[in-house]
Amino acid sequence: MKRRFSLLLVLVLIFTMPLAGCKKKKEVKVRGEKVVSVETKKVEKNDISIKTTLSAKVTPIEEANVVPKIPGKVTKVNVEIGKFVNKGDVLFTLDQTDMINAVKNAEAAYNMAVANLKLREEQIQNAKVNYERMKSLYEQGAISKQQFEQYELQASSTNIEAVKAQVEQAKVALENAKSKLNDTTVTSPISGVITSVNINEGEMASSAMPAVSIANLDRVVIETDISENLINKVRIGDVVDISIKSAGKDNFKGKITALSPATSQGSMTYPIKIEIDNKNKLIKPGMFAEVNIITDKKEKVITVPSEAVIVKEGNNVVFTVNGDKAHMKNVLLGVDNGEYVEIKNGIKEGDIVVVKGQNYLDEGSKVKIIK
């Protein structure tokens, strides 16, 4: 009985072992066909560029700090902060009493000098008449040579030169007095907006500090520096994008108007100047600006998202999808701006590349496109 039971057990084991082996082999096969979920993108030709960001502050295209040419008591202030003025508009006036008196004195001195000149000219004219008469008498021997020379001296034009010099001197003094009188009325040297007023009526104004400051905000300037590896990649006239968050979300367009061929003193960077139109006055002096300069650009080239490129065995590769299979392609890279990268060789326009999930792929991996 025991022998029959043992024989039956052996037969059961013989028949069940192949079945167990077949089941195990089937499970391995299923695991070998693992499917990787990926996201893909169609390869296209696009423009690609590399931008370098420079930081700077905004300054007016034109600015004037106005001080009076002469010190004096302020009698009237015609402007206030934020007011627009044209070139030549009166900003403030100083007391004119002393200057008016100085002009009157200078006019009197000038008129006296002119009168003296006229009198001397008449005297010389009479002396010339006497000279001609005395010359005839001298030739006849009626008067001595000494007497004749006195008449000759009186008729000489050298006597009038000193009087003319006095007239010229008086004229200059009068012009200076009038100029100082004009200086009591202080006008704007430029057209622009008043940015500061540091005087009040009744106060003394002097050249020690600006009385009024004016800025032309029709255009603003950004002055910054660029490194030596970028200096030869920009030119005067280039248009650049400028971000000024305080003035709005949209970027502004600026033009490079000056570029130094030499480095700044004590640095290894080159000064650069950029101008921006500011007709709507959104940009204010002192605002922080970010200048985006294109230092490299390619047009109509094959590009893929930078994240699509990975490194395998020391090579730059991307994975393309054909059907449900992934294929590894070695690629030659070009310009990379951190978001997109130029592919010079390895794939072509219209290929489908994996942009998510590529790190889990090998050549021939089975994939499922989820996006």
TrEMBL record:
Keywords: Coiled coil. Residues 63-216 form the CzcB-like barrel-sandwich hybrid domain. Residues 222-294 form the CusB-like beta-barrel domain. The keyword Coiled coil applies. The keyword Iron-sulfur does not apply. Residues 114-187 form a coiled coil. This is RND family efflux transporter, MFP subunit. It comes from Tepidibacter thalassicus DSM 15285.
